[in-house]
UniProtKB/TrEMBL annotation:
Domain Thioesterase residues, every copy: 63-137
Matching CDD domains: PaaI_thioesterase (cd03443)
PANTHER family per the UniProt record, alphabetical: ACYL-COENZYME A THIOESTERASE 13, THIOESTERASE SUPERFAMILY MEMBER-RELATED
Organism name: Cupriavidus laharis
Keyword entries, A-Z: Hydrolase
Pfam families assigned to the protein according to its UniProt record, in alphabetical order: 4HBT (PF03061)
Name of this protein: Thioesterase domain-containing protein
Sequence similarity: Belongs to the thioesterase PaaI family.
């Protein structure tokens, strides 16, 4: 499932309970995540999966999910992945440093799944790869792919 990840700092075998709480309260509990309906499905060190149920309120035209909504899902997933393997004694929060997205297919009338994995973890910077899939009858069309850097602060 996961390839070897280049690490500058050690990663725990399980997500620390305080980091899980941070993800659940700060990221998933944020007004934007709650408004969009983002749901946490998988949280383990260096890997997060979120689901965004389809909503007519998240579309651009017709039933196509807005690119900004997809970008927000990516941002939340990347931030959660960055937090998932962090040391709670060293990290009190974080912010997105950069985000580069390639939109590959439209998301028409379907729920979305964001799969975020840490590519490299440093002391203060974490690079995550995020893929967004349409949860459709084709078994999951790749809708967008992103590379994100998160800055962690203590």
């Amino acid at each position: 499932m996961r390839e070897a990840v280049a690490q500058a700092v050690p990663v725990p075998a399980v997500t620390h309970p305080r980091m899980r709480q941070m993800v659940e309260e700060v990221l998933m509990g944020s007004p934007v995540a709650r408004t969009l309906g983002v749901q946490l499905e998988v949280l383990m060190p260096e890997h997060v999966e979120l689901v965004l149920p389809y909503s007519a309120g998240n579309v651009t035209l017709g039933n196509t999910v807005h690119g900004g909504v997809i970008a927000t899902l990516i941002d939340i997933a990347g931030a959660a992945a960055a937090a998932s393997g962090a040391d709670p004694g060293q990290v009190k929060g974080g912010a997105t440093g950069s985000l580069s997205i390639q939109y590959l297919a439209p998301a028409n009338g379907t729920s979305l799944r964001a799969v975020a994995s840490v590519v490299r973890r440093g002391r203060r910077q974490v690079i995550s790869d995020v893929e967004v899939y349409a949860e459709d009858s084709d078994g999951g069309t790749l809708v967008a792919k992103a590379l994100m850097s998160s800055t962690l602060f203590g």
